[in-house]
Amino acid sequence: MSLFLGGQQALGSAQRDRFAESGFLVLPGLLPEPLRTRLVSEVDRWVDEGLRTRSIASCTDPATHGLPPVLELELPGHGALLTHRPLLRVVAELLGPSFVFHHLHSDRQGPDVAGKAWHHDYEPNDRADPSLLMIHVLHYLGGLDETVGSLAVLPGSHREPAGKTALAHLGTAELPGEVVIDRLPAGSTVLLNSALFHARRPAPDGPGRPRYFVDASYCQVGARWRPVKPFWRQMLARARELRLDHGQWPELFAERHFTEYIGTA
User: Fold this and answer.
1) Among 213, 4, 1, 235, which Cα is nearest to 101's?
2) 151 in a domain, yes or no?
3) Could you report the per-residue pLDDT of 159-184, keeping only the tens digit for each?
């Protein structure tokens, strides 16, 4: 049921059907090396200069901290990643020609970081229409192997309505039918239906290395989506100012596709 796509990034109808069934797609080595190394350097800056901490503070207590000093999409590599043409060709095949950027975040997770329990990341829309797709695009800049842990996904779980944390009580335990993604080259990407349950498994005990991770989310147009960052308007406006859509994706940073921010669910 899984879909691993190598080489030329293009989907046929059978592959789109398999994604609809399984809820995930693996693109090994999608990112070109110059972009990948640029992103690694930017993630180091994001973490080491405290920009990630400031961004989190702006999300958790916007009244106190206001707009963060730097938005991730203002980092040139991150901005380029959002509209990397081979990626958006695949996104368009899955979501259709009109879709909107939802959010972006990145991190450098230490080798001793704990796992993340089973969860999904689907946000509601104002039509309460589960047929409208939201996808999360997970970029593993250094790849995946036994030194950084693995990603476990539960194929088909996106087809059954459930709360985000409905399986959290299971931690990162092995589940029947799961697929473990634990061997990916540097610069690889995994696309998830955002309603798909998945978990981050920690690396085994022993020497490890940091996990460089960037994820972005995109939604089908047709309803207004709930934003997850209080400064979402400024984020979209800045993307438009920077012309990150290159004039090719007119809906990508349009505010009309979102409700008001009401905090995290």
Assistant:
1) 235
2) yes
3) 999 999 999 999 999 999 999 999 99
